[in-house]
Hints:
Helix content is 8%, strand content 5%. It has 130 residues and is largely without helices or strands. It is globular.
Amino acid sequence: MANVNFQQPMSIAEALMKEYASGKLDFSKAELPEADLQGIDIKGSDLSYADLSKANLQGANLRGCDLSYADLSQANLQDADLRGAMLFATDLREANLQGVKLEKADCDRTTHFPQNFDPVKAGVKIKQDD
């Protein structure tokens, strides 16, 4: 049985950063609803199919991450860096995208953005069906 120190519990963000620092980049299908990941730096990670609904990702560095099919509905992405991220079929409904950097991020017509949000104006490249 693992040795657990209940006096100083490790936060989800700390655990994720520890794995990232050890070289892990595959966090696909991660279950992180309502997680406090404010300011986390996990650029280049695979978060496809992850549940990040209602997560606090304010100021996070998600540059170049694969967020395809991820649930980011109602997430706080204020001032986050998603430049170059893959957002194919990503659910961003009701997410806070104030100040988010989305230049050169890729999405398709199945990506759901918040109402009244213009992804093209934000610099997102929308892949058209061939």
